[in-house]
Amino acid sequence: MKKNGFTLIECLIVVAIFGLILALTIPGVITEQKANRLVEQINTAKTKIADDRSLKPGDTIDYDDLSLELPDGFFYNEEKNVITYSDFYVIRIGNVGEPAKKVKETP
Q1: Is the distance from CB of 47 to CB of 59 less than 8 angstroms?
Q2: CA geometry: angle 86, 87, 92, nearest 5 deg
Q3: Can you tell me the distance from the alpha carbon of 83 to that of 60, in angstroms, rounded to the nearest whole number?
Q4: Alpha carbon distance 77, 42 (integer Å)
């Protein structure tokens, strides 16, 4: 007798592998989405502050000027004027005239 199809155990193993892959990747994707939203908020706030205060390109804006609430897991480093959100990635706030951006920072 010829066997066609998969056994229940084989199907359960495949489902378990997919679940494991999703469990490992979803937190990273969510963090990146939060970081992208934060970069957009920073750039919008910087533009508004620069317009309100008549700042010129190159003038400094730090996190305290932005009045933004950081999501869980994001930390402001006052010394470097960056927001850290993982072991190696930061959001550089930058000066007036240069957009905030995500960068990989080597330890």
Answers
A1: no
A2: 60
A3: 15
A4: 15
Backbone angles phi, psi at 12, to 5 degrees: -65, -35
Tell me the helices (H) and strands (E) count for the chain, helix number first. 2, 4
Per-residue tens of pLDDT for the chain, all 107 residues: 667 888 999 999 999 999 999 999 999 899 999 999 999 999 999 888 888 888 888 888 888 888 888 888 899 988 888 899 887 889 998 888 888 899 987 65
- Residue 74 makes CB contacts below 8 A (sequence gap 6+) with 34, 35, 38, 83, 84, 85
d(CA 66, CA 45): 6
Domains in the chain: boundaries: 9-104
**pTM of the model as a whole:** 0.77
Cα gap 83→77, rounded to integer Å: 6
d(CA 50, CA 42): 12
